[in-house]
Records
---
Amino acid sequence: MGKIILTGDRPTGKLHIGHYIGSLKNRVKLQNEGDYEQFFIEVADAQALTDNFDNPQKIRDNVIEVVLDYLSVGIDPQKVNIFIQSEVPALTELTFYYMNLVSLSRLMRNPTVKSEIETRGFDNNIPSGFLNYPISQAADITAFKADCVPVGEDQLPMIEQTNEIVHKFNAIYGDILVIAKALIPNNDNEGRVPGIDGKAKMSKSLNNCIYLSDSPEEIKKKVMMMYTDPNHIKVEDPGKVEGNMVFTYLDLFVTNEHFAKYLPEYHNIDELKAHYQKGGLGDVKIKRFLNDVLNDALSEFRTRRSYYENNIEEVYRIIAEGTKQANIVANETLKEVKEAIGIDYFSDDKFLKEIKGKFSE
Ligand code: TRP
């Protein structure tokens, strides 16, 4: 049997180029390599509610935004099954049975959850749903018997938690669940893309994102206000490339063809960097170039997005169909799980025979 790939995102906002570099790009690559049996992408709305339960409209609005982001970067619904978590009830049921296999102190020890509790200021009023979301994520993964989970490094504790549940479940009830392996981006840069202000992380709350759906005008505005080298004041000044966001983003997106097309006086990024470091190259010039490069990269996404925005019923059908398929697979696993535990009372007449044998003489 081939690989089963599953990954997902919380629909709490539009996706940005950090998501693209850190994960979407790799999903498209995996999809096009075709080395898998099934490929699922989950819109994790139920998980998003665990810390946004008081703002459900935000989640509802962003479900479609995130799906449009997937489709715009080239996720092909013929090859990948996109589904909505809350519309697959088996996931919630599995979560309930897995909760028995995880202690409260184990949940409290999860480093990702720990730091999230801090940033959200839950203190001692942690909603139990929130504390349990790693268990629900284990349900997401195991329901599809996924053995390959492409995620960022911050998700490693979730995969670890999932596999502990798999081991414990299989030891107690029999070999049903499958061990999952995380697929982590290998290069540092791919792990975390900094914001346009130079802060360590591109994030909606820091208001320093370049969104996949940004218009050319928005891109231009953001590039022009981007953090470069504060000591590079006059064009003649030597400039720093490290920590300079223009070069950070060029490193992620530029190709030698871009030089031929927009800056033929240089052949590649190394020549451009060398000139900047030596002095004599102004910020406006490199910013104009980055603007061209980013718009080239995003224009393909824009074309697809506008197709899907103009055919939004097609998008609706894609997620409805994807969710239907997801239910078929997850229900099959739930059936096996209930059988293994012995709570499959009405699925055949085994239970009826048993009680008859016991009570009719
Ligand atoms: N926790 C993931 C995130 O915050 C989203 C997610 C939910 C997920 N279920 C998943 C990722 C299953 C991988 C597999 O980004």
---
Amino acid sequence: MNAPLPVDVLRQHLIDPEICIRCNTCEETCPVDAITHDSNNYVVDPDICNGCMACVPPCPTGSIDNWRLMVRSEAYSVQEQLGWEELPKEKSLPTPAVESDVLAPAADAALPASAPGVAATFTPAGASVPPWSAAHPYVNLYTHKTPMTANVVGNYRVTGADTESDIHHIVLDFGELPFPVLEGQSIGILPPGLDAQGRPHHARQYSLASPRDGERAGYNNLSLTVKRVTEDHGGAAAHGVCSNYLCDLAKNDTVQVIGPFGHTFLMPNHPRANLIMICTGTGSAPMRAMTERYRRRIDTGENGKLMLFFGARTERELPYFGPLMKLPRDFIDINLALSREAGQPKRYVQDLIRDRAEQVCALLADRNTCIYVCGLKGMEVGVLDALRDVTMQSGQDWSILHDVLRREGRLHFETY
Ligand code: NAP
């Protein structure tokens, strides 16, 4: 008699605002639209989240993987979470609640997605694991609270001066302090000043354009590819806070850096691994890093094949056009898709994948091949369709191959 009433307990899913780099990956990944954001934070709606874990592996920082046991009626609301600067401390539950948990669906978070009670299986387009031979990445060494100061040692434009695409190659040096990175990782830049609400700007994420041993081999530096943002996706005038800050930096200026981030978009590390690289515009940054890693060991005989599909409006708007075209043809198979070159038909990367179906299929048939896609969000569907079409033409089942590529960490997307 008088046994305590069971208390409804929720394992509440939260995002750490101090580590989150606001890259939108979780919101895009969530199959039930439980994640939302404002200009301050990314947050999880406790009334919608079912703990399916789909958002956890793709998060480049791990900020997504935070959980609190809460009495359900006291769960942190979306509105509360949007105002946070840091995660609240763990609260202890009332004793009866611990003794007689009535578990909410979210408490099944550790179950596989196929477990009863867990929402529809979610299958992302790309892998959530790196290739088996990838080197070990370091992540979150420097955070919003403990950023690293880097010195600007180079900043120059890598697109034609007469074009609208003002894309810069920016080199940052870390002096004596460690900042270990791998190709395919990214860093966060903290732009100075305050946002419209009077808070410090949150970090903006940029992929590395240089390989692990530095923009200049043996130096403690790295490079970024940054496009000056002057309009939004709809074409209306907009001033990109961080891109304009970075593009205007002068030599010897200092920059606050956090990171590194990312543990899946990594290149294979074993000999004779082939890379198919598919990018648009500034999405070329990680492809430059990987290509340069291969170029530096060209004489070792370790390299597999490199095949690049690179989309830009015109040759003059294609970042790194000059250096790219100087690379030996037997080192890298370059396919340029130009969409607005005068006198030429509009071409997208997916058109060229179809044009080169035989060579693409030959590489796909080799288990040493990894595929990387980086750039505009819109290309993702087009690239997947093209890969499906060329594999099916060659008599293979794309759904089986797609599944293998994902499982083996051989197909990666980083699109915005
Ligand atoms: P952009 O100049 O706007 O576009 C590059 C090319 O892609 C153009 O030829 C464009 O053609 C074409 N394109 C447009 N829609 C396409 C589609 N659905 N499929 C295939 N191609 C398509 O590119 P950008 O401004 O440099 O943007 C690159 C993207 O990469 C940005 O969204 C950026 O956030 C992202 N990114 C950057 C980094 C970095 O570190 N800097 C890293 C990862 C991702 P048309 O416009 O002529 O139709």
